Amino acid sequence: MIYFKGTPVLRTNRLNLRKLCMDDTQRAFDHWLSDERISDHRVSPAHKTIAETHKRMEKTVDGYVSKEFCHWGIELKDGSGLIGEIDLYDFDSSTGNCEVSYSIGYDWWNKGYGTEALKAVVEFAFIHMNVHKLSAAHNTDNPASGRIMEKAGMKQEGVIRHMIRNAKDQYKDCAVYGLLREEYLLQREGDV
Ligand SMILES: CC(C)(COP(=O)(O)OP(=O)(O)OC[C@H]1O[C@@H](n2cnc3c(N)ncnc32)[C@H](O)[C@@H]1OP(=O)(O)O)[C@@H](O)C(=O)NCCC(=O)NCCS
């Protein structure tokens, strides 16, 4: 059984993971939601107008009324602001399983932030929410995403051909990853 706790602040060495707010709209548009270098690896197309981001942000902010909504903005602790977002979704009450997805603005790629955020959310999901299994999938032409899943302890379970069709009508093969709670707890024991 999943214990839903909404979207509490999660702190890591360099990041605060926190709820998004309407004031984040411009920055989210500028740094990842309008950027095709990000959207090419995701299912939703890049936003063309700030109005699209405004609407999406309203939906996200409205979501926080539910304890079953887990969607964090990723903010640098050094005061330089929001750099991306990460969420848990597709909760399945019959299995206790869910999925994770994330985006980091291009300016901050390859600095370890994606891994740091993912590890924090993985810990929250297993330790505080009692999630049974966490899954994610990345396009095979986006190996950086697979790398951060590996660094967060997730295991590749296979490749699904033409699993998604992106906004540019391209079919993409996706590598599917998963991590069981019991595996995560063993990994944690090994880290101590
Ligand atoms: C995937 C993403 C979140 C990674 O964020 P990040 O902050 O750059 O991640 P990190 O810096 O923690 O780690 C990136 C890792 O990928 C590796 N990497 C980067 N480009 C790579 C490539 N072309 N091939 C193989 N590995 C690559 C880096 O070397 C690093 O691994 P290392 O620490 O072992 O050297 C970011 O690239 C992103 O937002 N991409 C677009 C959106 C997206 O793909 N979302 C996920 C959809 S499944």
Automatic annotation (TrEMBL):
Organism classification: Bacteria, Bacillati, Bacillota, Bacilli, Bacillales
Organism from which the protein derives: Rossellomorea vietnamensis
Protein name: GNAT family N-acetyltransferase
